[in-house]
Amino acid sequence: MKKLRIALLGAGRIGKLHADNLVRSVANAQLVALADPMLNDDTIEWAKSIGIERCEKDPSVLIADPDIDAVFICSSTATHADLIRESAAAKKHIFCEKPIDHKLDRIREALKAVEDAGVLLQIGFVRRFDHNHKKVRDTVASGRLGKPHIVKVTSRDPEPQSAEYVKTSGGIFIDMTIHDFDMLRYLAGSEVVEVFAYGAIRIDPELEKLGDVDTAIVTVKFENGALGVVDNSRAARYGYDQRTEVHCDKGCVQVANDLIDTSMISTSDGVYCEKPTWFFLERYNQAFIDEATAFVDAALNGKPSPVNGNDGLQPVLIALAADKSMREGRPVKISELSRD
Amino acid sequence: MKKLRIALLGAGRIGKLHADNLVRSVANAQLVALADPMLNDDTIEWAKSIGIERCEKDPSVLIADPDIDAVFICSSTATHADLIRESAAAKKHIFCEKPIDHKLDRIREALKAVEDAGVLLQIGFVRRFDHNHKKVRDTVASGRLGKPHIVKVTSRDPEPQSAEYVKTSGGIFIDMTIHDFDMLRYLAGSEVVEVFAYGAIRIDPELEKLGDVDTAIVTVKFENGALGVVDNSRAARYGYDQRTEVHCDKGCVQVANDLIDTSMISTSDGVYCEKPTWFFLERYNQAFIDEATAFVDAALNGKPSPVNGNDGLQPVLIALAADKSMREGRPVKISELSRD
Amino acid sequence: MKKLRIALLGAGRIGKLHADNLVRSVANAQLVALADPMLNDDTIEWAKSIGIERCEKDPSVLIADPDIDAVFICSSTATHADLIRESAAAKKHIFCEKPIDHKLDRIREALKAVEDAGVLLQIGFVRRFDHNHKKVRDTVASGRLGKPHIVKVTSRDPEPQSAEYVKTSGGIFIDMTIHDFDMLRYLAGSEVVEVFAYGAIRIDPELEKLGDVDTAIVTVKFENGALGVVDNSRAARYGYDQRTEVHCDKGCVQVANDLIDTSMISTSDGVYCEKPTWFFLERYNQAFIDEATAFVDAALNGKPSPVNGNDGLQPVLIALAADKSMREGRPVKISELSRD
Amino acid sequence: MKKLRIALLGAGRIGKLHADNLVRSVANAQLVALADPMLNDDTIEWAKSIGIERCEKDPSVLIADPDIDAVFICSSTATHADLIRESAAAKKHIFCEKPIDHKLDRIREALKAVEDAGVLLQIGFVRRFDHNHKKVRDTVASGRLGKPHIVKVTSRDPEPQSAEYVKTSGGIFIDMTIHDFDMLRYLAGSEVVEVFAYGAIRIDPELEKLGDVDTAIVTVKFENGALGVVDNSRAARYGYDQRTEVHCDKGCVQVANDLIDTSMISTSDGVYCEKPTWFFLERYNQAFIDEATAFVDAALNGKPSPVNGNDGLQPVLIALAADKSMREGRPVKISELSRD
């Protein structure tokens, strides 16, 4: 069986995670090189330890290499759009971490390049590959519960990001809720057409200066007539809280968090159970593997992208609309933004 | 021990429920008479069977009777405000089913009469006495989780009301969500200051003519800075879905539905558990008893009302604001309505 | 509708519980009198407060009264067999608390008297009326899971009985496990034919002098070929632990404890849930009502007893066999005892 | 960091599983060779695909190779004891699948050889590394619940083994329950001193000819005074049922099965949840990795064996005692066998 020869572009935390998975757990993947502008000895040693023999500083060198079939773009967000365009031009299949960009025109240019080149583009909305959320979606998509009425996403991080991080993050909606906006579309099987967002600062008063919030509730209208809601918090001290639910004609499907273990300890004080798995590395561990496996499968077998360019664009649109809604104190239609 | 001598005003379904509880399950209550404008032989026979000896058509006769200490107003909504005023004037303690009225000025007149007379008024927001929701509220109120950030209420009826019923119900927010608006205030320990509502018709297309909806998501801002959300459906085919959750500084408290039993049946097809208890009669059975017990206790011992006049007024304000929000497509401040 | 006129024989804790239920919650029951050899002013006042007008010291006076249809025997165990015989002779329907007696010959004489008189006898194995255990039994009895293989009963009291109590209790098997032996038969739908018991003193070293144990595991063979097991403890500090499970051809049905509420409180320390309802008064509250209702229904409508004389006899046989097994360190056949 | 150079002895299903884990998921392990008497092209190709370059038919060649530090004995049970002795003599560290042997004298000889050689021996009781069972054990071992009273293990396979397999398996106690006997010791932190076993044929009547059973309940007494019980079935149609529980002085710790996902689908028919993960490959997937990691760590760092020779011997003793108990219809002391 032919293997997909992959170059990793960006060897930060998420890049290393994908690299480990590609090497250890993804059939038919061959991670042959990496490029990172901050390349140093530690990275080179790590690369060697997992069998990557070629390390570059300049991604363009790898993108230009005809011996490479595909790239994993795991560099900083600001570089995504350009790397997509360059890779597409070089006819590489592309896995790109979310978001493509914060700017709509840059996203559109990147998607145009992908379309023109006819290459595969898969965006890193990893939660679609989680066994729990996937079960919700598959149950809704099967039609056995009839049409959806209410789509709910609870999404809370275990601990707040630093002010430093928040400053360049693009705000809670583009940084954190974007995953939940993807979930809404994925679970409902329909596009979001209007958004209303309430935000609040409940955890870190410093956010006021940055114009950001740490707590939010966003409600949406879907094209198919259903309603949706996301609730977000930057700090769930009990761990990563990731629950989804869809209420339909004939019933409701919902998933709870994966827990560290299934223990119940009963004493005179009460019954103690375990917390959710701590954060995304633990919760979505298998989903990251399945995501990469799906990419390799699609690339080798000419299958359509499981998370395509439009799937990358829409959550950004919703996030920008949510931000506008919160600032202007009114519901915002997605069409207002697409016209921009 | 002195008993509280009570007259039941209105012997429909909910009136009979309260009567049964007062007779069988509430200490120090003595249900001595009832009045119902539609009084018939069936009602008289039923009254006799539970030991009520006096049946009247005209409630005023009982309200005027100096031998009666308190009234349970369980008649149609349109009569509540007048009966409250008349009973207050006669110095009776008053338990009144929700809502007091759909009109703010009539509510205010009734509350003024109660205040002037110095009698007890308790509004029938029975869910406050449910063991589950009470646990959420007590946990938040204890402060052990710090201040609240997000308050969530899921509230779905098992099956849609008839179009006939909906016509005079005042709409979903005043008829159904009003209980959830009470829950929001109760759980957050703070007043709602602004509301945004999305509604949808997902179940019964007939509602369009009536200007009502059967599916809704309402988000609110609280005075203390927290955010809240209610999701409603008129049809949860698996039964009455009543869940609440408050996410706070140091953690989250949530309650699931009471189930018919705790069984798990595991087969090759999956694991089957029981559904929630069917509807409010089953789910809030004990809460109705505890509600009446609290009223009798407050009346006999001069305690403050556990659900007072303002607790009756605020959910109506929120419901009217939610209705306005849905119709005008914008968030509505409660202060806009209070100024009316 | 004719009401069943009932006399209460024995007004201790369990007698008062049945009396309250008969008065408040059981349709077509009329509790008209009580007899208690220790009758005092408190009991008379209590009786009056729930509407019982006649109080006697001597049960024979009530048993002889032709105006009484049925008796609830709630006196001390030593008196059960004689009161059954006397009541049967007087053609009264009989509800009798468990156990009928500790001696097999006295049980058999009592059952003979009932049979000769053709009256109804129902033994107070209240757990058969619990919504959870009943669901297990009904699922097995329906045949949808095929034939049973393994029947499991976990039964633990929240706190140990006093040495004083234990002294006259007949030992753990006749006092506590007897309910579980009834459950085994009820759930399996088959008779126990052999028993092996291990006992241990893990809680109260004083029990050694009394020849009793506080911890036990009893395994049984059923006539239908299935196996069963009970585990008992006198002290589950988290509350009354009452779980049952039947593993069958096509799957398994099990029930967990009823909990005080459904709350989950998640913090950095873990997730806290509520404990089981505290003890039998809380857990089997509704089952006691349903048990009495079933008795009144059977008496008034000539239905067979839901828990008949043989259902009273068999658990005593199993308990005696378990005791013998533990003392002799070998499995004991029920037939060894029946031959006695 | 030095790596442990390992040879795999036996490349059947379980051998391949360990090999995959050693190659992909265990730090500091280097799987350098395999030996399998049935070596064929498929095995050679598979070995190559995961980077094993040397394949032999004769394990002795590898055991004799001074370049190899450790062996994984995954061959058929009958060969275990000899391979242990040979490997110990060659000063290799030894991981050996359970059981060491069915015969006590052969086990003792093997353990003697290990002791004499001073090498590491770890027996493959993988469940000790499962996050759930480990949590039960750690909770008991911490002492926070006081001393244990009752230890319970439920262990049911999803589907019966073939008669062919059963014929040479040594019977249910040595083949299947042996894992549960290990769990009993592990959870109780104490040795089993006496066993009583009931067995039944409920699934496959063919077993009668083979003198085996498919359903069993085994009760035990521990040295520390606690009691224990295992219930086994060869067929749980809903999947691999693996639950453990320890009831202690101050409370109870129990673990439920890991489920395929956390979904709840609520409809008018009831609430459907997912089944347990299918069988040991799914349920103990991570435990197999952790087990191998612990071995490599102990070998490289001179730590004591997490599952030593006595841990391999005791469950065989209990299994033989259980078999004797079932056949002779009496409790059997472990000391009866050790004397043999």
Task: Give a brief outline of the structure.
4 copies of one chain form a homotetramer. In chain A, 40% of the residues lie in helices and 25% in strands. Chain A contains 13 helices and 15 strands.
Instruction: List the strand order in the largest sheet of chain A.
Output: 12-11-7-10-9-8-15
Order of helices and strands of chain A: EHEHEHEHEHEHEHHEHEEEEEEHHHEH
**Separation, N- and C-terminal Cα atoms of chain A:** 47 Å
Q: Name the pair of protein chains with the most residues at their interface, and give those residue counts.
A: A-B, 36 and 36 residues
Low-confidence stretches of chain A: none
Q: Could you explain how this protein is built, in words?
A:
The structure is a homotetramer of 340-residue chains. By secondary structure, the first copy, chain A, is an alpha/beta fold. Chain A is 40% helix and 25% strand. The first copy, chain A, has helices spanning 13-24, 41-49, 59-64, 77-89, 104-117, 131-141, 163-167, 172-188, 207-210, 280-283, 285-301, 309-328, 334-338; strands at residues 4-9, 29-35, 54-56, 70-73, 93-96, 121-123, 148-156, 192-200, 215-222, 227-233, 241-248, 251-255, 263-267, 270-273, 332-333. In chain A, the strands form 3 sheets. A 7-stranded mixed beta sheet of chain A has the order 12-11-7-10-9-8-15. In chain A, helix 1 (13-24) crosses helix 11 (285-301), helix 4 packs parallel to helix 5 and helix 8 crosses helix 12 (309-328). Chain A is globular and about 55 Å long. The model of chain A has no long low-confidence stretch (mean pLDDT 96). Chains in contact: A-B, A-C, A-D, B-C, B-D, C-D.
